[in-house]
Amino acid sequence: MAISAKLKKTINYALRIVIAAAALWFIYKQLTDADNWQSFKDTVTSRLNSTSFRFQVFIVLLLMPVNWGIESYKWRMLIAYVERITFKHAMLSVFTGITMSLFTPNRIGEFFARLLTLKKAPLMKGAFLTITGSISQLLTTLLFGMLALCIFIPSYYSLSETRNYLIWLLVCITCGFAGITMVMMYLRVPGIYRLTTVFVKPGWEKIRGYLRVIRRLKRRLLLKVLLLSISRYLVFSTQFFLMLLAFGLPIDWFNAFILISMTYFTMTAIPTIALVDLGIRGSVSIYFLGLYFNGVAGASVSILAATTAVWIVNMALPAIIGLMFIYRINIIRKEA
Question: Regarding predicted confidence, which is higher, 217 or 301?
Answer without folding.
Answer: 301
